[in-house]
Amino acid sequence: MDRRTAVTVALATILVVGLILIADPGEVADAIQGADYTILLAVVLLYVINLLFKSGRWYMLLAAADHKVSLKDCLTYFSVGQAFNNLIPGRVVGEATRVYNLYEVNDVPVGTSLATIVTERVMDLVLLTVIAVSGLVLLAPLLVDEIMNELISGVIVAVVVNGIIIYFLARPDVVERIGQRAANWIGRKVSARWGQKLSTWLEKMCHSFRDAMRLSKGSQRWHMFGAISFTVLIWVNEVGRLFLIMVALGTDVSIFAVMIATSLSTLSSVFLPAGSGNVVMTTAIFQSVGIPLSEATTAGVLSALTSIWLSIPIGVIAMLLTGLRVHKESEIKEGA
């Protein structure tokens, strides 16, 4: 773990621990001890199922781009990438590992991999925005003006980011032109040997990105329909998981509050990694609708524990299995 990652994890840990201390560790511990563990086990199972849903969606997007990658590989690469994303802010390191694995093991062009990942992000952003706006409208009568204004600001930011990404997704030729100009600039400014290599690589990546972004044409449309269906299942699952956590704690909560907490905690994870976004946003939303601080904080901790923190050991196991499998394949190739 490099210094930057260590600092980030330390700050996220301080944030989560600070919230627990504010809420009273004794009350949080009592709430966890009094939870229904059968329901929490179901919450964990739903998280594992969601990994399958997300891997299945990626499989569909790759198939739409005319690349047949096994569902097993998609699940392995996605699990490893998810672990990195949940540990490091920005949620880009995990995506880089997915791109690298697809390129090295499955010969999928970098641009194609990036296009499928961007499409995933946009699908998630669209649905998260719909969930946040719907929940906010339906929950509005229960909120005071100050909290209402803060939530509206958060949703507006999500809508703006969503719109920018969708614009570029709908116009891959724009991305290609930008990449072409960058490639030309590199070719002029960098030394002849490395400049030409970087320029050529960037041009190829932009071409494959453009081609892969044209996913919804012709016979590939049913793959896109499958990916959209998986996206709906993924976020219904996420809302259901958080609602079940509240049931396990014996706390009554509006499903609309759960919808807002799910969407905003996910969106905040870009800036608040390692589960701290889940804890902070879930605590804030639930407390705003009258749930005691200790129960709201416990819900956030359990949400992170049964998903984001759980993804780390799952990713490590997947990484080990990937290493063994790739090593065996290389041995077979060498023997042949």
Task: Give a verbal description of the structure.
It is a single chain. The chain is mostly helical. The chain has helices at 3-23, 25-33, 37-64, 71-87, 93-106, 110-139, 145-170, 172-189, 192-213, 221-248, 255-268, 276-288, 293-305, 308-335. 40% of the residues are buried. The model is unreliable at 324-336 (pLDDT under 50).
Which tags fit this structure?
mainly alpha, 336 residues, globular, single chain
Structural class: mainly alpha
Total helix count? Answer: 14
Mean pLDDT: 75
What is the 3D shape?
globular
**Oligomeric state as shown:** single chain
Strand content: under 5%
State the distance separating the first and last CA atoms.
Answer: 37 Å
- Secondary structure: helix percent: over 70%
Tally of extended strands?
A: 0
The unreliable regions are 324-336
**Cα-based radius of gyration, to the nearest Å:** 22 Å
Secondary-structure element order, N to C? HHHHHHHHHHHHHH
Biggest pleated sheet: none
